[in-house]
Design a protein that fits this description.
Aldehyde Dehydrogenase, Chain A, domain 1, alpha/beta, 15 helices, Aldehyde Dehydrogenase, Chain A, domain 2
Length: about 475
Amino acid sequence: MSLTFDPTQPEFRSAHYIGGSYVDDNPSIPMFRPSDGREFAGCPIAGVDTVDRAVQAAKAALKTSGWGGLRPRERTDVLRRWADLIDENALKLAQLETVPSTRLINQMIKGDIAVTAEQIRFFAELADKEGGDTAPTAEGQLGMTITEPYGVVGAITPWNFPISMTGWKLGPALAAGNAVVLKPSEMTPFTSLFMAELATQAGIPAGLINVVLGDGPTTGNALTGHEDIAKVSFTGSTRAGQAIMENIARNGMKPMTLELGGKSPQIVFNDADLTLAADNIARSILFNAGQACVAGSRVLVHESVADALTEALATRMSGLVPGPAWNEATNYSAIISEKQIFRMDEMLQRACTEGAEILLGGERFEGPGYFYKPTLVTGAGQDNTAVREEIFGPVLTIQSFSDDEEACEVADHPVYGLCAGIYTRDLSRALKTIRAVTAGTVWVNRYGRSRDHILPTGGYKSSGFGKDLGKEAYKANRQSKTVLIDL
């Protein structure tokens, strides 16, 4: 069966989802399809009153359902039913995501959607396996820690992987006994809405998941600053993360999980398998047209193999043919917006005035839609815009080094520390480099996450703090209480 479909076929309902029902609102943000640039829908902006309505619905649902106090296995069972419904509705979810976003239909069914269902099952199984502990105390006393849900969690997700990020936020929060008010990106909200609807169908009490649509300055600020939001989880840009921290500080303290931007290095040593390295590096920057916070956009290669690797990368990054995301044959994504195309162009022009050279690409594809050619940049120093700033597109810089110490020095970024890749056949060299690089995740002879959901993800420096995925994400949605009893 072909996955190709007519982009006008899906129904895009621009409404909030509060208390288990859709709440219509006036759309005020025009929405455009990245694949052809056509306007197709509008997104409303939830104000303070609408956000408060969602938060109150979440509080009421927690109280009436007793969700946080249920036998943990009961939460597990209903979350597993939700994951099953996500799998059963994969085609509809894929279509709802493909039209407004940069995700390709041929990557959605077995990729994003299947992985999201897996992750929800993973967190569901943690509900009765992660708890408190007893502590050694004096005779005649009993010391312990117990864990409790926070209550209502506020979550904000980005536009680049809408359904995946929704699963990241909702899965651990619900398994840990919380309710959630979610604000998806105003550019890609539709899969989040349908996932919330499926959750209600699965038996998750109405109101435990509420979705409010809108932008950051209005809806995001109202959500993160709300006095009844007990914890905030955000994935997005570093600048937006800083704004959220400032807003929370102005309105009262609360814990946060922030997974932010990156400018991640991929270090290729002279003993590396160059074919393997070139394949992984090209795949990492071409996937979703480089629009991923973990994109390995800085290649650092030993000077003795720099020319060979550069040639191999140029070959792999040439000849791609863009097309609509809803066409099964398309293998290269659009850029999310015209604004982002202009931003990339401006940054690359600035990089060239600072001494960089564009070896490949550096311009948009002709024709409809927001497509940008895969781009290789050489000759850029550490202070160059192309090396220093997160471009968030299919732009790869190549720098060379002469020894291991220099490689680690060049790999260190003054702002970001999200991920890093290392290519070498020497285990000792790999382990030493792992310890030397400043990054929350390091991959060796590969680049990118696996489907081992037990592995957490998160950054150092301004790439954020706290962890998504893994047991750490579940624990981050419960608070610890210390108990000491005199017997």
